[in-house]
Amino acid sequence: MSVNKGNAKLVMIPTSRRAAGMSWLAMTGAWAAVFVATWAFLKAPQGEAVSELQSTPRSVVDRGDLTSDEKTNIDIFREASPAVVYVQSSDLARDFFSRNVFERPAGSGTGFIYDRDGHIVTNLHVVAEGRRHKVTLSDQTEWDAKLIGYAADKDIAVLKIEAPSSILTPIAIGSSGDLVVGQKVLAIGNPFGFDHTLTVGVVSALGREIPSLLEDRSILDVIQTDAAINPGNSGGPLLDSGGRLVGVNTQIASPSGGSSGIGFAIPVDIVNRVVPQIIKYGRVIQPGLGIVVWPDHVTRRLGVGGVLLRDVSKGGVAERAGLRGTLLTREGKVRQVGDIVLTVDGKPTRTQNELLDVLTSYQVGDVVTVRYQRGEETLEAQIELQPVD
Question: What pTM, to 2 d.p., does this model score?
Fold first, then answer.
């Protein structure tokens, strides 16, 4: 009941025993109706039919034999999986309030066993942020790992574990030089420490160029595949239909962060060239000309169509071949423009990155033909590549 008092409207709540008693009788009647309806539903014949139908399983249809392609996938997965490992990296941090030092995750991904000496290959971006590293083998044993070295411009890192060779199964090494578009490939990963995963696809494209995740460089001749490379699969192997390593999975192109059918892998021919150097020297011994060059923005400002030499290493191969650097006045003004490298063995070197990319396909000691410009003249020199840092 409501009462108007002035402009206010008051809601009156009944408190008498009579009103309460009438409310109690109404509630009792409602509960009785619910009980009767429920009892009637449970006793209904259709309920027994539904119960009987749900308790009878469907008959199983015989699947038949697996296809030859499925059997091949299974065999490759079983043979290669023991070589695939889970890689974790961590770092030390200090709690702001307690000042206690604790270990925090700094990255994780996949890797694979390179040899029976315990060398593990993975992506550099998997371990770059950590100072402590652990490797979990397929038998779930966990080993402390030491970072031996890396090739930042290739996103390749090498770890080492002190595990007995009897429990190490190295990956089978193949070749990426004879890959063709449309060829079947398989990607194996160990994301987040879960069990091994397998995805299957084809080589979608060859000779792709992708940016390095850690350096202002491009990685050339990359393999593109539609085999799903999911988060956590970075550093894992890309295999051909013979179960051989043809690439190291490294990146995906995706607007959402998930696999969208565009994955990239570092070719095994590059991996098999740089990894032995990392194992032996702790770094990649790059072949070079013994020169120091001006940054690209300087050459663009000067209108130079090549790599402009700033200096040549004293006693280096370029100096012995007669190449000259730029001469400056005391005030820092250009008195004599240095030589401009135009091509190496016929390959154009319009930028510093192009020159570096060309040289990475050679070994120290190889002899190359360098075509360069000096003033109005175009000259050539035979130069034996030297090791450079």
Answer: 0.71
